[in-house]
Write a structure and sequence with these properties.
This protein is mainly alpha-helical. It has a domain at 50-87. It is built from 4 helices and no strands. The radius of gyration is 21 Å and the shape is flat.
Amino acid sequence: MITNTILYLFYLFIYGLTAPLRYLNDVSLPADLTNAIQTTNSYLASINFIFPVSTFLEIFTLILAIEGFIILYKIINWLIRKIPTID
């Protein structure tokens, strides 16, 4: 669920960046880029049998979230220590 949300936000970001280009009539992706995406998809499909990519992404997202909270905690503590009247 978290992975889907992160990927959806990433999709919306890219979708927003490419919005001006999508409104033009003669814009399309190069054939090489399309082939590269299809090749990458086939590689990931073969790896997914041995090591599920979705599980890996969920674990990786969880680790990043935990590390983000740790960094946020350290920044908040550092800011609190910079206030002279708080001990």
